[in-house]
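F.,

This is the one I mentioned.
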């Protein structure tokens, strides 16, 4: 990137941040802090299901709640896909970091529901969102325990070898979620519209969901 590129982009960048600040002032959410815009815009899908859903400010704790529908603690995860076609393998994962800490390991069992969204690169709204409701969230607990157990074994081995433990996150794939919860029990949105979950996964597996990049 040349100095001229920076100069040429200056006014566009100032205008982009002016518009962004307008949204931040209206919503009270710092949309560029830790990808907060993803949590905020994925709620546009989930709000159809949970009308009272609200984004929780800040980086720590729950991402959102929907008290009127009985959700005190919602966790929203997301990822970016740069492929031309969305598939089960390149879908976002439920990732949980700091699994070396017992408090963080225990925390993932306390959520009432999970939202998982996948975004195209530099698109503000998700291409697809799936939601695990409170009726089925406990079905994920065994896979949480399994992933944590595997990770703790890695920590123990590396410490015994005198090595740094390395990355301390775990990832729950879409396949893990489907195997645990059942695709018929997931709630799905595609391009901002609710879609039957069986139809969604049929299109996903047949590689029918094309991305614009």
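My design for it:
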């Amino acid at each position: 990137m040349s100095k001229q590129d920076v100069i040429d982009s200056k006014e566009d960048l100032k205008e982009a941040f002016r518009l962004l600040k307008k949204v931040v002032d209206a919503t009270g959410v710092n949309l560029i802090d830790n990808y907060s815009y993803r949590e905020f815009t994925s709620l546009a899908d989930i709000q159809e299901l949970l009308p009272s859903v609200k984004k929780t400010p800040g980086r720590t704790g729950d991402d959102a709640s929907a008290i009127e529908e009985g959700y005190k603690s919602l966790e929203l995860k997301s990822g970016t896909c740069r492929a031309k076609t969305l598939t089960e393998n390149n879908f976002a994962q439920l990732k949980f970091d700091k699994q070396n800490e017992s408090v963080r390991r225990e925390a993932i069992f306390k959520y009432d529901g999970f939202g998982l969204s996948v975004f195209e690169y530099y698109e503000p709204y998700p291409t697809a969102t799936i939601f695990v409701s409170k009726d089925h969230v406990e079905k994920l607990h065994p896979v949480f325990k399994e992933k944590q157990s595997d990770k703790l074994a890695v920590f123990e081995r590396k410490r015994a070898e005198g090595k740094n433990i390395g990355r301390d996150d775990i990832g729950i794939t879409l396949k893990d979620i489907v195997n645990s919860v059942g695709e018929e029990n997931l709630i799905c949105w595609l391009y901002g519209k609710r879609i039957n979950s069986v139809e969604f996964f049929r299109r996903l597996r047949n590689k029918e969901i094309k991305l614009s990049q």
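The longest strand covers residues 71-81.

Talk soon.
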